[in-house]
Amino acid sequence: MRRFRPIPISFASLVLLASACDVLPPTGTSALADRPALGSTATLGRPLPLVSALERALFDRGAVVFARVFTPEMGLGPLFNGAGCAKCHTEPAPGGTGVQAALHATAFRGGVCDGLAAKGGPVFQLNVTRALHDAFGIYEVPVPPEATATARRTTPPLWGAGLLDAVPDSAILARAHPDGDGVAGRPNWTADGRLGRFGRKAQVATLREFVGAAFITEMGITNPLFPAEQTLAGKPLPPGVDPAPDPEISPEDFDAAEAFVRLLAPPEPVGSAMLALRGRSIFTATGCAACHVPELETGANPVRALSRQVVPAYTDLLLHDMGPNLADICLGQALPAEFRTEPLWGLRFEFEFLHDGRAKTIDEAVRLHGGQASGARERYLTLSATERAVLLEFLGSL
């Protein structure tokens, strides 16, 4: 199996990389205080190793679609959050994170989750086209009074998503049991009985569906998977506000965009082999690895680049209770306090942390962990200053 390995870099090299790097998160250096040099961003946005010539051609076409800026005449909206994939997934390269946020809302009563689909949910877009504004006088989609909770969602990076999609269900479910610390992840199942793995609540089963849902909910672009336009508060859109014929992206362009995301390589970690060894040892000893599993493995796959790979994503793709302070919406079978373990690869490029961006540093994010992560958090807080610095430097090198 191919392994993605850390690249040994001397301290002097890190200093040079830091001075040479011209792509920094817009919040500036304060958000990077507990991270080493970012390393070069030149390799970001590239496909996985071992892709074929045909796959590379499809990836390159998908990169163009990913960068496309849609207009209402091309199908944008009339309800949307961003005008293109790269309008949100832009930092520090296409497919990464961004400053855009989304608003979600659901209703949770009597232990039952209602995604408010009949009211246009669970995503309530923050922008509308001029035509829709002129028709209704609104600037964003209103959250219905039935909602019991709302949630801010930051833009998740997409790198390595194809590798996560290629992990067998059995490998994920095998980890859904308590460890010695009593930590037990659990799966989120879709309404038709499939294992969820994408989304902050692991509510989407496949990467293809995740991409299709992003086109329709984030941009209002109808596509082969979601050919119907969204409704406004559960009511059909009036004639004339959406001039583009459906689907608003061709099957060929949709397939290319999906291939771009599927084949997008994750960032290689930076830092020395010694940092990786020491940091990962502390990471495991504190109990962080109970949820942020350092390595998963893909199964046999017709795409060579995705077949039988060792994937250092630092996630188990399962739901974990994170405590009442982080709880917000429900989704599918995921309760308000339950979230999918976030992958940590590429963490050094993040500038907002946790599902809603409330933490501005890695240290703050760890301190806000609760629920099943309480034990790991407490062990983190009892680390010596040197151990904590090593752990934060390690996390900031991913």
Can you tell me about this structure?
The protein is an alpha+beta fold. Helix content is 28%, strand content 9%. It contains twelve helices and ten strands. It has a three-stranded mixed sheet, with no helix packed on it. A three-stranded antiparallel sheet has the order 4-3-6, with no helix packed on it. Strand 3 and strand 4 form a beta hairpin. Helix 2 crosses helix 8 and helix 7 crosses helix 8. 48% of the residues are buried. The N terminus is likely disordered.
Number of helices: 12
Beta-strand residue percentage: 5-15%
What class, by secondary structure content?
Answer: alpha+beta
Low-confidence stretches: 2-35
Chain-averaged pLDDT? 90
- Give the overall shape: globular
Q: Sheet bearing the most strands, described?
A: 3 strands, mixed
Calculate the terminal CA-CA distance, rounded to whole Å: 21 Å
Radius of gyration: 21 Å
The level of helicity is 25-40%
Number of strands: 10
